[in-house]
Fold Ribosomal RNA small subunit methyltransferase A.
Amino acid sequence: MEIINNTPAILKKRRFSPNKLLGQNFLISRKFRQKIIEAANLSPEDSVLEVGAGDGTLTFEIAKFASSVIAIEKDAKLASLLQEIAIERKIKNIIIINGDILKFAPKKFAEKLKNYKLIGNIPYYLTSRLLRKFLEEEKLKPKEIILTVQKEVAERITAIPPHMNILALSVQIYGKPEIMEKIPADAFWPKPKVDSAIIKISEISDDFFAKNKIEQKNFFSLIKTAFSKKRKTLANSLSKYFGDKKTAEEKIKKAGLHKTARPEELNLENWVKLLLQ
């Protein structure tokens, strides 16, 4: 395995041990670090908001290509280490913040985040909440999102009928997700129990809602209700939503769907037709 630097030895020398509660797994492969950079396709016009800067190996590489980097790191020891390294190397286009990305307010850095990409090697537990926070951001959505996530989660996000799910719909309603590269577990330290993948979400916007004249809250209410009962048909899972099963069957039929259709079989357009009934 090709190594960026001797991350384990460097961190141990500073008496640092990975925190399991924070889901810390450091990407130590030069090959896959480069794959993230390639997926981001950075230019001098881009600014970057990095999630989980960790030991900084990706952070400082990003800084070579972007105009500015705001690096968020929840672990105070790592944030302090990053600050030391940035000063030592005289890197001036990085702002390091010790904090929780889920509490981060983009509007406070509006000038820096006018044309930004969200990048990160993130803890697995953070994926859904992070995507929801930034895809639903009203005024400062990222231009693109490039993350390393659990491989199975990446596959769920990029799913198509008949394997759709709430996470896939919640992402695809805002942008175009694709798996750029799969990463084996031994590319990380400590080695996780599962493989990862680099996922890229591009063409991010709220246009789908405006184009189809639907409200976000109504759309999410519908799909959450539909998926709340596993392996149930739409007629059964949406009977209370539409009042009763008979009414649900009528609306499903008007939307051009079969009464035995199941939620995982519908694409975005199907959900819009159903919502507009």
User: Anything to note?
Assistant: The chain is about 35% helix and 15% strand. The beta strands are 26-27, 47-51, 68-73, 94-98, 116-121, 144-150, 176-183, 188-189, 196-202.
